[in-house]
Amino acid sequence: MTTAAPAAVTAPVPGDPPPRRRRVSRDTVAAWGLLSPNLVVFTVFLFVPLLATVWLSLYSSSGFGPREFVGADNYTELFGDSTFWRATANTGLYALLTVPVSLVIGLGIALAMNRPLRGRGVLRAIYYVPYVISGVVVAVAGRWIFNENVGVVNRLLRSAGLDGVPWQSDAVGAMGSLVLISIWTKIGFVMVVYLAGLQSIPAEYLEAAQTDGAGKWQRLRYIVVPLLKPTTIFLVVLGVIESFQVFDIVYVLTGGGPGNATEMLVTYAYAEGFDARRQGYAATIGVVTYLFIAVLTALWYRRQRAQEADL
Amino acid sequence: MSTAVRTSSKARRGSARGGAGWASWQAVALVVGALVMLFPLYWMVITAFSGQGALTSGPLRFFPEDPTLDGFRRAFELLPFGQFFLNSTAIALVAMALSVTLNLLAGYVLAKYRFRGQQVVFVMIVSTLMIPVQVVMVPQFQLVAGLGWINSYWAVIVPRAAEAFGIFLCRQFMLGIPDEVLEAARLDGAGHLRIFWSIVLPMSRPLIAVLVILTFMYRWNEFAWPLIVLNDQQLFTVPIGLSFLQGEYGTDYPALMGMALLSTLPVLVVFAVFQRQFVEGVARSGLR
């Protein structure tokens, strides 16, 4: 490819301005050539499986033996399946709790850190470290730290004269530990992204506002937060998508329990597909999960666009 | 500040004084927050160096009574973690090299070429971000099984080689490379790959740092997919081994925490090495 592309790839069409047309086409060939490894992997391992998921959701299949066409039966069953609705509610609750809280805390840290500060690098690294730790490690540590009998959190609560929280045996406690642990892992990423966003705000804007007598809360409310809006949109979309994909932490921390108190859409799909071996039904959960994400993302973008149009 | 009418110089002095006090409060809050963030890690460390059962009863202590390496030793005895580390390292390094190369190529094309269908390709790639891995896992598994890749590293590496987030980062970053530089090289007769290799890549160092950190991290930490396609214990990655250790020896907290910490070290090392470039890379990738 370092030599010029063969001239024969495009026969010049009579009447067109030949040299220009040919160069564009040669670039086009190079572009598709450079893209092709990605396109092959995406097509074979993502787009085809995505279509196959839709197709499989119309079948009953254990993965062994023949599969049987069942039409919309999987969907009918799904809409009457209380575990599915519980998993949907849990996933929504998880997103509603983890995304806003991690954004507010992450923004607060970024604002406090956005100045010359001794030990800034060390602080930034400390806040960021939980984000790079694997979900499995986080969950294994969480099981120990939040263990309701011997974990340090409850031991600290008890030594302060309070009751320990039933982190494992109670539905609210289990969801609480999951949310707290998830927020701990998310803050660092939010902070780094907001720091990058803050550094793109021209200092003159803030100085001008200050000269005009705007207090720090007014500057935050009317200048910083609006200018950070693209960053916030990015983080919200990413956070919601991540919430619909949370698997590792849940699988190891609670296994979806107690009962199905922390069952998520994807852990339920995994359990149906690979433990219960109901692959058609798992595919159906997958299709519906994907639709949830697509609709939410589309609604959010429409709302953002509408708000921008109002301004 | 908002009520009294002041001259602007007074206002500025006032806010500067208030600002100094406010700034130190913020610094205190930052340090306290950092301690809260660190506490779970600290508790993992002292657990790892404690004897079995030392921290589960008796008075609450924040230092290990008799520091010992027994937890680490037991972890390696209970399951072949040495082998798991080798497996994870091989998978993470190969997968990282492959993914970063593919990301850079696609990002370059999407940022710097103009051709019909470009927007469609970009939108399709970005839309894959919305597909949870678990949604397509059943057909992916059947596909990989059909290829005869179950219990092979290829099953872990290849299906994840193309990755939308990395491509998106590359495109955003490379939009910032001036066209004139590329045009000049082209006029000098450089081919497509030559321009990519000797001009675009050297200008993309911070981007490459971001990609190396993120991809190594994703691959090293990945759990659900390897769990499905690797059934032979000899091939397990570290996270799978850790979840098995949790499942079978769930109350041996020193062994669990010791292995949890050891398994985090490689990611921390990569992160520490590339940290400074990482922040610059995030900023310039338009991740904001």
UniProtKB/TrEMBL annotation, chain A:
| Bilayer disposition of the protein | Multi-pass membrane protein
Question: What subcellular locations does the record give?
Answer: Cell membrane
Signal among keywords:
no
Keyword vocabulary terms for this entry: Cell membrane, Membrane, Sugar transport, Transmembrane, Transmembrane helix, Transport
Q: Which GO terms describe its biological process?
A: transmembrane transport
Residue ranges annotated for the ABC transmembrane type-1 domain, each copy included:
88-300
Q: Which residues cross the membrane?
A: 29-56, 93-113, 125-146, 171-198, 219-241, 280-301
Q: Which superkingdom is the protein from? A: Bacteria
Bias (Low complexity):
1-13
Chain spans, region Disordered: 1-22
InterPro entries, alphabetized: ABC_transporter_permease, MetI-like, MetI-like_sf
Specify whether Transmembrane helix is a keyword of the entry: yes
Q: Name one GO cellular component term.
A: plasma membrane
PANTHER family named in the record: ABC TRANSPORTER PERMEASE PROTEIN, INNER MEMBRANE ABC TRANSPORTER PERMEASE PROTEIN YCJO
Family (UniProt) = Belongs to the binding-protein-dependent transport system permease family.
This one is known as Multiple sugar transport system permease protein
UniProtKB/TrEMBL annotation, chain B:
Q: Tell me the CDD domains matching this sequence.
A: TM_PBP2
Read off the Pfam families from this record: BPD_transp_1
- Keyword entries, A-Z: Cell membrane, Membrane, Transmembrane, Transmembrane helix, Transport
Q: Which GO terms describe its biological process?
A: transmembrane transport
Q: Looking at the keywords, is Nucleotide-binding present?
A: no
Domain spans labelled ABC transmembrane type-1 = 85-274
* Presence of keyword Plastid: no
* Gene3D superfamilies recorded: MetI-like (1.10.3720.10)
Location(s) in or outside the cell: Cell membrane
> Which positions, given as ranges, span the membrane?
21-43, 84-108, 120-141, 153-174, 195-218, 253-274
Top-level taxon in the UniProt lineage: Bacteria
Q: How does it sit in the membrane?
A: Multi-pass membrane protein
- One GO CC annotation, please? plasma membrane
PANTHER family in the cross-refs: ABC TRANSPORTER PERMEASE PROTEIN MG189-RELATED-RELATED, SN-GLYCEROL-3-PHOSPHATE TRANSPORT SYSTEM PERMEASE PROTEIN UGPE
Q: Which family does it belong to?
A: Belongs to the binding-protein-dependent transport system permease family.
According to UniProt, the name of this protein is: Alpha-1,4-digalacturonate transport system permease protein
Q: What is the scientific name of the source organism? A: Klenkia marina
Phylogenetic lineage: Bacteria, Bacillati, Actinomycetota, Actinomycetes, Geodermatophilales
